[in-house]
Amino acid sequence: MKTEETLQFLESQPVKELMIKLYGEDKEEENRKRYRDMIEKFRETYGDQDIRMFSSPGRTEISGNHTDHNHGKVLAGSINLDCVGIAAKNNSSKVNLVSETFNQKFSIDLEDLEPSERKAGTEDLVKGLLQGFKEFGYEIGGFDAYITSNVISSAGVSSSASFEMLLCAMINTFFNEGRMDTVAYSHVGKYAENVYWDKASGLLDQMACAVGGLITIDFKDPAAPVVEKIDFDFASQDHSLIIVQTGKGHADLSADYSSVPNEMKKVAEYFGKEVCAEINEEQVIRQLKGVREFAGDRSVMRAFHFFEENKRVEAEVAALKEGRFEDFLAGITASGNSSWKWLQNCYTNSNYQEQGISVALALTELFIKEKKRGACRIHGGGFAGVIMAMLPNDLVDEYVAYIEEALGEGSAYRMSIRPYGAICVDEVV
Asked: What is the reported pLDDT for 249?
């Protein structure tokens, strides 16, 4: 549809209903205005074309902290913050992209997809996605895109994966007749990060952004992860999900992040395997002396976390399906304790005096102890950044005021789970 047709389409009842599902009733009009603004900016930048609207959410990790890279299990959900893009095929060999959020504008020649020497930044990531499509046997082509995002950057809600999955939805819609599934999207995103950013990421972030809703994923076969949607609404339990930004760490955390999968894999290596999903806890305990000598004690502790976290994911999924919400909350608390004590990713040993996550968790645990309701845990990669709290709605305003007084205004975000992942809005309606 051309610009005017699309603007009229935005005012239709089906689009309004979709916006409520994506963003909530109180944010429906605000987000339709957001789309209108983006459409106008696309036209100002590229002219009046046959455009499509796209949306891709950020994600929250509810349990399964640092398990995906060793082919474990996770419980995650897409959130009501997203990347929105307006895009059109341009029948050329160029991808032209404007990222309003990061004030970037660049063009990529499809004949030159080599990464830069520094292997960083949005342009390298887009090149990696395009090359990933080619590597996995899919088609690519030239298109124009104007993109904005309100997915909080550096907050453990996967702003980069949200962007990646948005681009995947565009390329799938324009050049692959919509035949790709969300697993294919996720592998393309993982390829881009692994090869063009040298980042040892797994598939969790991409899968949670691409699929949508509340999902559990078993990565035992990473080529074909088993994904199950969980029909559960936290609002029905009168609870809200709160993400708290504790402050960005000043240290380079790349080595800390890489050490987690690598140390787990070192334990598996002792048994002649590649990842912890190929061994079990009993094997490690039976041969503990040898494993400790070979892999080191922290590696053993991280492997124990992996085994127990997988069990917790299974237990939490069962609790949600069976309506045992208090048991589910207890699982979140246990997951957080394991990350703190066994996985040990709440602060970096290279700068142990900087412990924003630990402080935020301590404050939240004191709040929950006093109120006798709720749960909290670290959220995402760890070492710096973000925690998650699950609290009754009648406590949310008080908690937000309490935590922001300590950590700064605007540090707490109230989230909801949305039912759609990375989509072409026009086609869903």
From this structure: 66
| Sign of the alpha-carbon torsion through 313, 188, 100, 116 | positive
* Share of residues in the chain with pLDDT > 70 (%): 99
Residue with tokens 């602060």: 347
Q: What is the pLDDT of residues 154-193, one digit of tens each?
A: 666 788 999 999 999 999 999 999 999 998 999 999 999 9
Q: Contact, 421 vs 79, CB < 8 A?
A: no
Residues facing residue 241 across a β-bridge: 390, 415
Write the burial class of residue 347 (CB in 10 Å: 0-12 exposed, 13-18 middle, 19+ buried): buried
Beta pairing class for 104-109 and 94-99: antiparallel
Using an 8 Å Cβ cutoff, are 81 and 151 in contact?
A: yes
Place of tokens 């080599």: 114
Token pair of 186, please? 């996720």
Give me the helix-helix angle, 297-321 and 288-295, nearest 10°: 110
Task: Return the CA Rg of the chain.
Answer: 22
Q: How far apart are CA 49 and CA 3, in angstroms?
A: 7
Q: How far out from the chain centre does Cα 141 lie?
A: 27
Is 58 within 8 Å of 81 (Cβ atoms)?
A: yes
> pLDDT tens, 376-428?
999 988 888 889 999 999 999 999 999 999 999 999 988 888 899 999 999 99
DSSP 323: T
The candidate with the shortest Cα–Cα distance to 210, out of 228, 188, 183, is 183
Q: Using the 8-state DSSP alphabet, how is residue 192 labeled?
A: I
* pTM greater than 0.90 (yes/no): no
Three-class SS state of 20 = helix
The structure tokens listed for 380 are: 């995402």
